[in-house]
DNA sequence: TAGTGCGCCTAGCGTTGCTAGAATCAGGGG
DNA sequence: CCCCTGATTCTAGCAACGCTAGGCGCACTA
């Protein structure tokens, strides 16, 4: 059954190809440009092939988002581990988060803005999401049982990131905003 | 030219009718349900009439959003003026903001989530937006020249509101999150 | 080599935002 | 009183969207 294996391998490659193409197209021209037709053209297959891999366009976006959580988690982890003091670690993680949102806006959009049915805080939550949130918990400090501080710190970062991204808040002073947040959320100083 | 006046009056009424219908339809069934066809049917005119009032669908959404800022501004103002102490005023305004987002999700979406070309912080910023932001500045205290504290407080509120709305953060504990924010942003204590 | 089944593509459905051109209606002049 | 003029509204249709049915062709099995 070697041919079957090869087929499955090729199929998996194409699966990944679709996800990558969708992300690249979104990052280059925005999600509005990611239509099933253009995406199919880009992977050099016809439209229906997409539907043999994914239930629909939403599922493709979800797959792109899911990969993004690995990246974001790793980026935050690297940032916080590079610092010694809790305060500096917090600032580094916050900067990493905001940089991620600013540098890869389309990916960030798929992860945190577009409608999704990814389970975010439940038993079905994918490991990548859990790990990414865990980085925030680690740096904020699990001062309470439910991670309230981590939630609010995350929410604050997300808020300013998304308002800047939507041009509802000036892009300048983002560093100052982060400093202000860090000042308030530094562990112990609570 | 009385007939002309009447015509203009009727036209203005219809203009408002379209905005109201769009908002109601969005609040009842979500913005996806607000198609130009359904909206036209609802106002009992044909589709092209919409385009004689608005440049396109985006312009209708923008008009709905603009009205929302009056509501939100008033709601925040009422809340903060009902309290004496700065801390309680801050909490009341925050609660008003979060309640607005939770109670009128479609309207909130049009104001703060959907793509828009409304000028948010510039010379062209509509008075309603300016006034609403002014309420936040008033309650946070303009501790710096550029309203950094107000921006970050607003961003934090927006972040948790929108993450809960998108089911990316549990809906519970929203009150606790607000308390935590208020604790950190209370004037003087800063 | 003939049969068989899977995989891919062509074609098309219903819906979207938006627009061109026909039709209709109100108001004013002969 | 009637017809003409101009504005206003509607019918019809375009291109693009997400998605799907059905048939064709190729690769593998026997």
From TrEMBL, chains A, B:
- The residues covered by the HTH tetR-type domain are 12-72
InterPro entries assigned to the protein according to its UniProt record, in alphabetical order: Homeodomain-like_sf, HTH-type_TetR-like_transc_reg, HTH_TetR, MT1864/Rv1816-like_C, Tet_transcr_reg_TetR-rel_C_sf
Tagged with keyword Transcription: yes
> One GO molecular-function annotation for this sequence?
transcription cis-regulatory region binding
Give me the segments passing through the membrane: none
Q: Which UniProt keywords apply?
A: DNA-binding, Transcription, Transcription regulation
Name the SUPFAM superfamilies for this protein: Homeodomain-like, Tetracyclin repressor-like, C-terminal domain
What is the protein's given name? Transcriptional regulator, TetR family protein
Instruction: Write down the species.
Output: Streptomyces bingchenggensis (strain BCW-1)
The record lists the lineage as: Bacteria, Bacillati, Actinomycetota, Actinomycetes, Kitasatosporales
């Amino acid at each position: 059954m070697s041919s079957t294996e090869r087929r499955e391998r090729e199929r998996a490659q194409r699966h990944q190809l679709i996800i990558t193409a969708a992300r690249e197209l979104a990052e280059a021209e925005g999600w509005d440009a990611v239509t099933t037709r253009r995406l199919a053209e880009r992977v050099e297959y016809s439209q229906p092939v997409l539907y043999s891999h994914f239930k629909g366009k939403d599922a493709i976006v979800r797959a792109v988002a899911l990969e993004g959580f690995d990246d974001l988690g790793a980026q935050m982890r690297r940032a916080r581990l590079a610092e010694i003091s809790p305060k500096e670690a917090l600032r580094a993680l916050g900067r990493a988060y905001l940089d991620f949102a600013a540098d890869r806006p389309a990916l960030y959009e798929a992860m945190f803005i577009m409608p999704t049915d990814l389970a975010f805080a439940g038993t079905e939550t994918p490991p990548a999401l859990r790990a990414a949130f865990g980085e925030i918990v680690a740096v904020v400090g699990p001062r309470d049982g439910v991670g309230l501080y981590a939630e609010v710190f995350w929410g604050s970062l997300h808020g300013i990131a998304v308002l800047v991204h939507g041009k509802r808040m000036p892009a300048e002073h983002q560093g100052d905003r982060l400093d202000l947040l860090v000042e308030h959320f530094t562990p112990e100083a609570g």
